[in-house]
Amino acid sequence: MNNAKQVDTLIQEWKAAGKDRAYIAWHAALACVSWPYVFGARGEYCTVQNRHSRYSDDHPTIRTKCKGYDSGSCTGCKWFPNSERVRCYDCRGFTYWCLKQVGILINGTGATSQWNTEANWACRGEIGTVPTDTLVCLFVKKGSKMEHTGFGFNNETCECSNGVQHFTSRNKKWTHWAVPSGLYSTDPQPEPEPVPGWRPTIRRGSKGPEVGECQTMLVKLGYDIGACGIDGDFGRATEKAVREFQGDHKLVVDGVVGPMTWDALDKAVAQLNPAEPVTYSVIIHGLDLTQAEAISGNYPGSEIVKE
User: Fold this and answer.
1) If DSSP codes are grouped into helix, strand and coil, which group holds residue 165?
2) Who's near 303: CB < 8 A, 6+ residues apart?
3) Could you tell me if residue 76 is left (phi over 0), alpha (psi between -120 and 50 degrees) or otherwise beta?
4) Which of 58, 156, 206, 297 is an S-S bond match for 234, by CB 3.0 to 4.6 Å?
């Protein structure tokens, strides 16, 4: 399961590579598979506090779905992988969030109001006319209402029902489809929004400041990057050092520095450089030595300096 930071990084990389809106929205949806369903959520981090704000304590499944609901702790939860957050959605919040990543906003507080807002869609129809090789929002109509929504592409679906799920064969429950306005427009793509801590994936042949940063971290951790040293050029020796680091940290050993390897490098370097303790100087006038010693005794390690 990806964490939120990894998915944000992937989206940033697809944008930087010039992928089109439909590609990014669909692959963003797939990258979120196994993330949880939370009623009313539209991509917020999955936390106990968010769940408390959206469910009654008497909800029949809240405590079976959220093991830390009573304790307030996410430790050990499958939706807190390696102590990293994932995001949560309901069905219409899922399509809303994925499309928002490419600058498209579909309005509506639920599947029905999304469908009924004509400005949301370039075209739409009943499921028997759904286009192929086109990313669409799918809907399930019962009576006068749309009860569910998700994504469809080439007879595959990705939806958030009991969590985010991907199906390679489309369920017959879907009744309608709609193509979001602007999804296939030739208008310029929105500029990528920077993700804090984002770095591009680098590999053999890459050059630039990110390669130099990676080399610096490897050297700090004791890995040999060759005679050329920190030169910003990802050559054979740097690849060998990356592979050794990946093997030592139980990562996929492929010599490629992507989101998981960057994250492991950050954590490993942070352990080498624990934060320095903060020291404060406080001047209190008019104290005698006895008074100063009494105050200092409340702060182990403090020193008294006479002016």
Assistant:
1) strand
2) 296
3) left
4) 206
Confidence class for position 109, pLDDT limits 50, 70, 90: confident
Tokens 């009924």 locate to 116
- Please count the helices (runs of H) and the strands (runs of E) in the chain: 10, 8
- What is the DSSP code (8-state) at residue 169? S
pLDDT in tens, 208-238: 888 999 999 999 999 999 988 999 999 999 9
What is the pTM for the complete model shown? 0.66
Residue 112 and residue 129 in contact, taking contact as beta carbons nearer than 8 Å: no
Nearest C-alpha neighbor of 110 from the set 31, 164, 59, 41: 41
Residues in CB range of 97: below 8 A, 6 or more apart: 42, 43, 87, 89
Delimiting residues of CATH 1.10.101.10 domain(s) in the chain: 209-272
Tell me what the pLDDT averaged over the chain comes to: 87
The rounded percent of the chain whose pLDDT value lies above 90 is 57
* 18 torsion bin: left (phi>0), alpha (psi -120 to 50), beta (else): left
Give rounded-to-5 percent helix, strand, coil for the chain.
Answer: 35, 15, 50
Type and span of the H or E element at 160: strand 156-161
DSSP states along 121-158: EEEEEEGGGPPSSS-EEEEEEETTEEEEEEEEETTEEE
The residues, any chain, with a CB within 8 Å of residue 248's CB and separated by 6 or more, are: none
Q: What is the CATH number of domain 4-180?
A: 3.90.1720.10
As a whole number of angstroms, the distance between CA 9 and CA 230 comes to 25
- As a whole number, mean pLDDT of residues 32-59 equals 85
* Residue range(s) occupied by CATH 3.90.1720.10 in the chain: 4-180
Residues 305, 307: Cα–Cα separation, whole Å: 6
State the architecture of 209-272 in CATH terms: Orthogonal Bundle (1.10)
